[in-house]
Specification:
Radius of gyration of chain A: 16 Å
Largest interface: A-B, 33 and 33 residues
Helix content of chain A: 25-40%
CATH class of the largest domain in chain A: Mainly Alpha
Number of strands of chain A: 5
CATH architecture of the largest domain in chain A: Orthogonal Bundle
Oligomer: homodimer
CATH topology of the largest domain in chain A: Arc Repressor Mutant, subunit A
CATH superfamily of the largest domain in chain A: Winged helix-like DNA-binding domain superfamily/Winged helix DNA-binding domain
Bound molecules: zinc ion
Largest sheet of chain A: 3 strands, mixed
Structural class of chain A: alpha+beta
Order of helices and strands of chain A: HHHEEEEHEH
Distance between the termini of chain A: 42 Å
Strand content of chain A: 15-25%
DNA sequence: GAAACATGTGTTATAATATTACATAAGTCA
DNA sequence: TGACTTATGTAATATTATAACACATGTTTC
């Protein structure tokens, strides 16, 4: 898993704005939602968002949720350490828990070993109802 | 994890055609690639593909690879048993290994327990270079 | 400083993926 | 049969992502 080694980086204006939006959102955000949010700041084209996101993701400051085609700010200081992260997503309230511990990296290592793959990127996403939403929606 | 309980289902014509294409491809296939493949059989619109895929996925006969926006035929008899499946994807030769054992379901159960989520769907995808490709591309 | 290079930006257009809406047909069961 | 569900056909549209090009800015090297 390639990861940025940098601990402190100077973000460009666009990157900072996108990261701030992501943090403020506190939820998975689509690229076009971010674009709309940032139009008042002069953003006009999707590429401005996608380019900033690419950097932020490389730096471990944001993550892409593959199953939602959406993005979210990293909830840790930064995920540089391992890059082995799992996302647990409530489909009702859209809360996302970002889990990044040894159980994840161990699982991925073991999976890579078993399948003889030289892993470069992983995506673990678990959908369902969080504790609160699960209590409410007892259909 | 909700799963079909059916063991033998009669597929409709469209569903059979899409499944056959997926199996023949033996690789992740995009919806529009499937559409092109099936035009000679009368397919004309993306919805015909997406609708068939939805059924096939519900039946456990096909899977969606979230990180590729693509689909693949189930490599087991069917994944009805657990629905806890991991995909290991070579980014060079596009080979996909579908892993479905206790290590996967245990990991997911544990993750769900830790995060207090009532899980309904999961997606585990590991990218990298398979054994063969990794040997060749020693840059 | 000038040249060479890498990185970031702005903008337009376009590609790739997925869904809505509506009309029709076919299968299932009382 | 009627009532109902499921599958289909088709057109239009929505959503997500990238390509191509021009320009600007920053950094290194001489
Ligand atoms: Zn993170
Ligand atoms: Zn919730
Ligand atoms: Zn399967
Ligand atoms: Zn390979």
């Amino acid at each position: 898993m390639k990861k940025s080694v940098v601990t402190k980086v100077k973000l460009t204006r666009n990157q900072s704005l996108v990261l701030d939006s992501l943090i403020k959102a506190g939820q998975p955000s689509g690229a076009y939602a971010l674009l709309d949010t940032l139009r008042p700041h002069g953003f006009k084209a999707p590429l401005q968002i996608y380019r900033a996101l690419e950097q932020l993701i490389d730096l471990g400051l944001a993550h892409r949720l593959e199953s939602l085609n959406a993005f979210i700010a990293c909830s840790h200081v930064s995920c540089e350490s391992s890059g082995a992260t799992a996302f647990v997503i409530c489909d009702k309230c859209e809360t996302v828990q970002e889990i990044c511990d040894e159980s994840i990296s161990n699982f991925l290592s073991s999976l890579a070993r078993k399948t003889k793959i030289r892993a470069s990127k992983s995506s673990i996403e678990l959908h369902g109802l969080c504790n609160g939403c699960s209590a409410v929606s007892h259909s």
